[in-house]
Each structure stands twice: as structure tokens, then as C-alpha cells.
């Protein structure tokens, strides 16, 4: 019998060994506690390190060992709750990129190290703020996804269980005064976030900055999710990179992105998500059906016909409708398609106007051009510190507004 | 049977489910503008569950969804001959269901459809069977 999530560890120890003591606690951790889904055991040295942190955090909150909770295990970590703090034991990670939506660790300690890669992944111990993960409403996952997208990032591992509420943050500085280099700043000017909902995962959230892209290209960001090099090298927007690298490969991400774009009013982007989603779901359904048929009846793929063919049920359809109804629906559908086309073309026109307006605002006036020419002279004469910058901005004056010149 | 705006969005939700299940050769024939319009108009809060254990015709669709399926069949999936045969099978009016049910008409159609796909033979046989039992 393993440990159950959210149980007091002391209670489980009494159940197993009849009493709770330093000895039985150690036995319990060495025999029953395992790390992540690979079910790795910890050794005595690891236990001593974990115990030290449990004691430190418990004493800072006037708690004792009987108050320690087992919070369960995920793919990467097994978690222990000590009051408002959580100790995560799992695969060691590189520095965690900070952002306002995630609870990042405040303390990190290396545990077991393996000499060879095939012996296992090195273990690490992390301490962070504990969040209440129970009863997070489903709609909040979309809300968090939208927040991260609005801030220019992408939350990759969207799960309700990866979200938690934090009411009042614990002061870790007094417990770990010298711990400074656990995380890395994302170097982004994030919008202010005063919510109490946070992502509790240390990984799987990406904010692509030019610096991070460069690091990824140089192979200096091993902890960041993989993005194809050609996308990093090209002059692509983050939205395009996120879509091509992650969103379109996951039905879940496509659903969240589709809702996000719909809410934002970008129907073209939402439609794109929808098309990919439909493609993915169709593929899954068709493959599942084919496999099922092959397994059940040993049929060749070419012999398998879908039971969901519209053509095959034309007779039944004909019996349930009539010419007038079809004509009416045809008229209705045609008008909706037309409406959509007009709306799309209006949107496209608006986008072009917006782009031109934006372009106009960055295009220089005649006076500015003259100043630019003057600056060019200055640059030629090596006079003035900012002349090169001015020269660059005058280079755009060759472009013409295609609408006004026609 | 008039299609109402609010029902139209529900029909679209059901059609989106149908699109997930129909075979590639049918899906690829449907105009993408039509599919996108169905998506744009669908009711995201209408919870329709496609029952995978049932065939398409056994699903619990709204009546208007059959009108839409007929539209899809006529517009995108059938050739001229199939369209004609389909029109022949349709009840011109739900209250008057005898319009096409004459032996002569069916025989005439069967000549046209003789070399057509097997399912049209099924259609003719079905109609014949129906008439004989009356």
C-alpha cells in the first residue's frame, strides 16, 4: 500500500508501523516514498536532506513533524506539504524562468547524482509557496491561458491540477536568506498581476524573448521546450512560432487557443485553430475506427468503410426531409456564407487600413526628411552621436502609400 | 419547417460532430467556406454528444440537421445523376408523401441509375420493397 495524497504522513506511519517516531518516519520514507512516475526510491542521504528542510520549514511556522502532509506525485515530482510551504522532490531542473503567473521555487538543493545518464536522472529538492489545488473551477484554466497569452507567453501543460490558489504569501527570505540563484528573470516587463491563481508547475511555460531565442539557438537553454531552429532563426512573430511549434500539435492547446482568439475577436486566427482541431480530431477518430476494425475482424485497411458516411444514408436522409426545407436551409446557408465573406473582407480591409495608418505614423514628414538629410550630412562629417539612428529612420521614406498614390 | 436562428446554431454544432466522423473522401469534397461558416455559427454551449456505437442515421439529431445533411449531400457529395435520384426520393411536402411513388417513375429512374453506384440500386430496391408492402 502506497501513500495516499493529502494524508498526514504521521497518520500513515502509525497505520503501518504502529507508532510515529524518528525511526519509523525514516523507515517510511525509505520504504514507501518514491519519486515521480518512475517510482524511484530515495536513499538515506536524500532522506537526511529532506528531513532537514522539513524541520526548518516546520519550525519557522511553529509546526511539528506530525503536521507534515503527503501531497501526491506527478510525472516529475513527489510533494510534501509543510504548512504554507511545499517541498518537491524530483528530476533536477535548470533555473526556472520567473513570471508573475507561476509559483517558482525559493530554494533548490541537489540530491542524488548519477554518474551515467542511463543510471537515472539526477534528483533535486525544491521549496516553494504552497497553493490550494483543490476545487479550481474549470473555466479558470482558460482564464490563466488567456492571461499568459496576453502577456506574450504560452502555457503548454494546461491542466486544472497545475493551478492553485495562494492566499497570503509566506516569507521565505528569513528561512533562506542566502538563496538567490534558483530562478532566472525572463527580462520581460509583465503587466501587473494581482490575482491569487497561479500555475504550480516549474516548467512548460514559455515567454519567447529575443534573448531567450538567441540562447536557444546557442544551445544554452536546455530547460526550455524545444522549438525548431528554422522558426527561431526566421523573422517570425511569437504567435506564429507558438502555433507552429506547439499549438497545432495539441488538440487541447488548439481548443484553448481557439477560445482565446474568439474572445479576442480574431476570427481568422480562431478559424485556423478550428481547422487544425477538426483535422486532428478527424485523424484520431478515423485511426481509432480503422484499428478497431482491424483488431476485431482482421480486415485490411482498404476494406474498411466508415459507418458514418452521409452518402450511405442518403435514403434515410431523404425520408426525413423535403425539398422546401432543403431550399430554405440552402438559402440560409448561402446568406451566412455571404455574410461571413463580407465580414472577412471588411476585416481584411480594416487590417490593411490599420497597417497603413501605422506605417504613416512611422513615416517621416517633409520637414523630418530635411532634418534627416541634414543628419546625413552630419553623419558623413562624423558629427553628432545619434546620426546613425536618424539615418536608419529616413530609409523608410522610399515606400509609398499604395492607396493614395493610385 | 422553418429554420430558426437559434436552432441553426445548434444544427451547426451537430454538423461539426458529423464532420469529425465522415470518411475523408466525403469530407474533402465539402467546401471549406461552408465548414468555416458552420464553425462560426455553431453554438459552443450546446452539448451534443455523438454516439460512436450508433450509425449516422441513428444519432439523435435535430430534425433540421437532416435538412442540412440533405443539403450537404446534394451540394457537395452527389453527382448529377445521384442528385436527380435523390430529388426523386424526397417528399415534396411532408403532408403529401405519395408524389414520387409510382412504379413507372421508379422504373424510369432505375434505367438512368443502372450503371451507377451500388447504393443507388439499394435505393431503388428499397423503394420497390416499400411499395410492394403497401
Please describe the topology of this protein.
The complex is a heterodimer of chains A (406) and B (134).
Chain A: E1 7-8, H1 9-17, H2 22-31, E2 34-35, E3 40-41, H3 44-60, E4 69-73, E5 77-82, E6 85-91, E7 96-98, E8 107-110, E9 123-129, H4 139-150, E10 154-155, E11 163-165, E12 183-185, E13 197-199, E14 205-206, H5 210-217, H6 229-233, H7 238-245, H8 251-264, H9 267-297, H10 314-319, H11 323-362, H12 366-380, H13 387-394
Parallel strand pairs in A: 7-12
Antiparallel strand pairs in A: 1-4, 2-3, 4-5, 5-6, 6-9, 8-9, 10-14, 11-13
Helix pairs in contact in A: 4-8, 8-9, 12-13
Chain B: H1 5-21, H2 24-27, H3 32-41, H4 63-77, H5 80-89, H6 103-113, H7 118-133
Helix pairs in contact in B: 1-3, 1-4, 6-7
In short:
The complex is a heterodimer of chains A (406) and B (134). With 406 residues, chain A is α+β, with helices and mostly antiparallel strands. Chain A has 13 helices and 14 strands.
Walk me through this protein's architecture:
The complex is a heterodimer of chains A (406) and B (134). In chain A, a hairpin with a 4-residue loop joins strand 2 (34-35) and strand 3 (40-41). Chain A has helices at 9-17, 22-31, 44-60, 139-150, 210-217, 229-233, 238-245, 251-264, 267-297, 314-319, 323-362, 366-380, 387-394, and strands at residues 7-8, 34-35, 40-41, 69-73, 77-82, 85-91, 96-98, 107-110, 123-129, 154-155, 163-165, 183-185, 197-199, 205-206. Chain A has 13 helices and 14 strands. In chain A, strands 1-4-5-6-9-8 form a six-stranded antiparallel beta sheet. In chain A, strands 2-3 form a two-stranded antiparallel sheet. Chain B has 134 residues and is mainly α. Chain B has helices spanning 5-21, 24-27, 32-41, 63-77, 80-89, 103-113, 118-133. In chain B, helix 1 packs across helix 3 (32-41). Classes of the chains: A alpha+beta (406), B mainly alpha (134).
Amino acid at each position: 500500500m502506497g501513500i495516499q495524497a493529502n494524508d498526514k504522513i504521521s497518520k500513515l506511519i502509525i497505520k503501518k508501523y504502529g507508532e510515529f517516531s524518528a525511526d519509523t518516519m525514516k523507515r517510511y520514507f525509505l520504504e514507501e516514498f518514491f519519486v515521480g512516475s518512475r517510482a524511484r526510491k530515495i536513499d538515506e542521504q536524500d532522506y537526511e536532506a529532506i528531513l532537514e528542510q522539513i524541520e526548518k520549514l516546520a519550525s519557522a511556522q511553529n509546526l511539528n513533524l506530525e503536521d507534515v502532509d503527503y501531497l501526491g506525485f506527478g510525472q516529475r515530482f513527489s510533494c510534501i506539504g509543510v504548512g504554507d510551504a511545499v517541498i518537491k522532490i524530483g528530476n533536477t531542473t535548470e533555473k526556472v524562468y520567473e513570471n508573475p503567473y507561476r509559483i517558482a521555487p525559493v530554494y533548490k538543493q541537489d540530491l542524488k547524482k548519477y554518474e551515467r545518464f542511463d543510471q537515472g536522472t539526477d534528483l533535486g529538492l525544491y521549496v516553494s509557496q504552497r497553493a490550494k489545488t483543490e476545487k479550481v473551477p474549470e473555466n479558470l484554466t482558460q482564464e490563466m491561458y488567456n492571461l499568459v497569452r496576453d502577456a506574450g507567453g504560452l502555457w503548454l501543460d494546461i491542466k486544472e491540477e497545475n493551478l492553485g490558489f495562494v492566499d497570503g504569501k509566506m516569507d521565505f527570505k528569513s528561512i533562506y536568506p542566502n538563496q538567490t540563484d534558483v530562478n532566472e528573470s525572463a527580462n520581460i516587463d509583465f503587466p501587473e498581476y494581482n490575482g491569487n491563481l497561479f500555475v504550480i508547475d516549474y516548467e512548460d511555460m514559455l515567454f519567447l524573448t529575443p534573448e531567450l531565442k538567441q540562447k536557444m539557438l546557442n544551445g544554452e537553454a536546455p530547460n526550455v521546450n524545444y522549438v525548431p531552429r528554422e522558426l527561431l532563426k526566421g523573422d517570425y512573430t511569437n504567435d506564429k512560432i507558438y502555433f507552429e511549434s506547439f499549438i497545432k500539435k495539441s488538440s487541447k492547446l488548439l481548443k484553448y487557443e481557439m477560445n482565446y482568439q474568439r474572445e479576442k475577436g480574431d476570427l481568422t486566427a480562431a478559424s485556423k485553430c478550428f481547422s487544425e482541431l477538426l483535422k486532428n480530431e478527424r485523424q484520431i477518430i478515423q485511426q481509432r475506427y480503422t484499428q478497431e476494425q482491424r483488431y476485431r475482424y482482421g480486415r485490411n485497411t482498404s476494406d474498411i468503410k466508415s459507418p458514418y458516411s452521409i452518402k450511405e444514408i442518403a435514403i434515410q436522409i431523404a425520408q426525413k426531409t423535403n425539398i422546401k426545407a432543403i431550399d430554405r436551409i440552402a438559402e440560409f446557408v448561402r446568406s451566412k456564407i455571404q455574410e461571413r465573406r463580407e465580414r472577412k473582407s471588411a476585416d481584411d480591409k480594416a487590417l490593411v487600413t490599420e497597417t497603413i495608418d501605422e506605417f504613416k505614423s512611422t513615416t517621416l514628414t517633409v520637414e523630418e526628411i530635411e532634418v534627416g538629410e541634414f543628419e546625413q550630412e552630419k553623419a558623413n562629417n562624423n558629427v553628432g552621436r545619434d546620426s546613425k539612428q536618424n539615418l536608419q529612420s529616413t530609409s523608410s521614406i522610399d515606400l509609398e502609400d499604395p492607396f493614395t498614390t493610385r | 419547417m422553418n429554420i430558426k436562428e437559434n436552432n441553426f446554431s445548434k444544427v451547426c454544432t451537430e454538423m461539426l460532430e458529423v464532420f469529425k466522423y465522415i470518411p475523408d473522401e466525403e469530407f474533402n469534397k465539402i467546401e471549406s467556406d461552408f465548414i468555416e461558416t458552420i464553425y462560426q455559427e455553431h453554438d459552443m454551449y450546446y452539448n451534443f454528444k455523438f454516439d460512436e456505437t450508433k450509425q449516422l442515421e441513428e444519432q439523435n439529431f435535430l430534425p433540421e440537421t437532416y435538412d442540412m445533411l440533405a443539403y450537404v449531400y446534394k451540394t457537395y457529395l452527389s453527382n448529377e445523376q445521384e442528385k436527380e435520384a435523390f430529388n426523386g426520393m424526397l417528399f415534396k411536402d411532408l403532408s403529401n408523401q405519395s408524389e414520387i411513388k409510382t412504379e413507372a417513375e421508379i422504373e424510369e429512374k432505375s434505367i438512368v441509375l443502372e450503371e451507377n453506384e451500388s447504393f443507388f440500386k439499394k435505393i431503388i430496391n428499397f423503394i420497390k420493397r416499400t411499395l410492394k408492402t403497401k
